[in-house]
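Sample A.
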Amino acid sequence: MKYELDEEEKEILSTFEKGEWEKVPGMEAEIKRHVEYAKATHRKDKRINIRISEKDMEMIQRKAIEDGIPYQTLISSVIHRYISGRLVDTEKIILSTKEEGVSMV
C-alpha cells in the first residue's frame, strides 16, 4: 500500500533529507520526561461535584456536541487549559490590540 504525503509531511521529509535536523542531547531522558507528562495529563483519579446554572450546563452540552466530545471532557479540558495558562480571553486580546492600535486582520 502506497501512502501519499500531505504538504506538511513533505516539508518535514525535505528538511530531514537536507540534514537540517539536530540530535536532542539526552534523548532518553527527554523521552522519559515527556512520557511522564503524558501519563500525568491523562490520569484522572479525582472526582468533583459542582453546581452550575442550568443555562451554563445547556451551553456546555451544546458546545460539547459541536466538538464531538462528552461534556465532562470539555469541562475537564477548560479547567486544564485555565490552570496551565493556555485558556485565552479573546475579548481581552481584541480590546488590548485596539488600545495599542493593532489591526486584527
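Sample B.
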Amino acid sequence: MSTAVIETDAPAAAGGTGVNPWLIAILVALASFMEVLDTTIANVALPYIAGGMGVSEDEASWVVTTYLVANAIILTASSYLAKTFGRKPFFLISLGLFTLSSLLCGNAPNLNALLLFRILQGVGGGGMVPVAQSILADSFPPAKRGQAFALFGVAVVVAPVVGPTLGGWLSDNISWQWCFLVNVPVGVFAMAMIALVLREPKTWRSCWTAAWRMTGSARPSSSRSRSFALSHSC
C-alpha cells in the first residue's frame, strides 16, 4: 500500500464510526501501560513471593525472568500474528490472555504454577505494544499522529517508574498477589471498551481479494491491472 492510501484511510478508521480517536488512544495506552508496568511491579515483591511460597529469593526471581523472556519472544512474532488473525482480534486476544493470566498469577498455589502463568502473561502482553502503535497510526490523521504517539510514549515511559513503587505499596499494605490482580479490572474495562469502539481496518488479504474481483481475472498477464486495483482497493 502506498503512503497516500494510508493517509487517506487513517481519518476514516477513527471517524468512520463517529468515535473520538483520543478515546482509542487512551484505551490502547492504558492497556500498554499495564503491560509495561508488569515488567517492574514484581521486582520489589520478590521477597514477599519467596516468603509466601516457601522458596528462595533466587528461585522467586524467575517470576521476573519468565515474563521478560516470553514477552520478547512473542514481540518478534506480533506482526505475523496480527496479519494472520486481524489486528483488532489479535489485540483483544492478547489483552484477554494478559488479563486472565494476571488473575491466575494472583491465585497461583505454588511457584511452578506462578511461573507458568507469568509465561502466559508475557505472551499476552508481548503482542499489545507493537499492535497498539499500529492502531494509533491508523486512528489519527498524519498531522495528529505525533500527539497520539506522545500520549502513548508517556504511558510507556511512566509505567516502569511507577511499577516498583506500586508493587512495594501493594505488597506492604495488602498482599503481593495484588501486584498481579490489579491488572484484572483495568484489563476487563479496556477489553470491553476496545471491542466497542475500535474498528478493524482492511487486512492485506482482503485487499488482495478485492483486487482480484476488480480485475475480474486471475491470469499472470493481468499483474499490472491487479497492482492498480490493489492500490485503489486498500
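B remarks: The chain has a mean pLDDT of 77. The chain has two domains: 3-201, 202-234.
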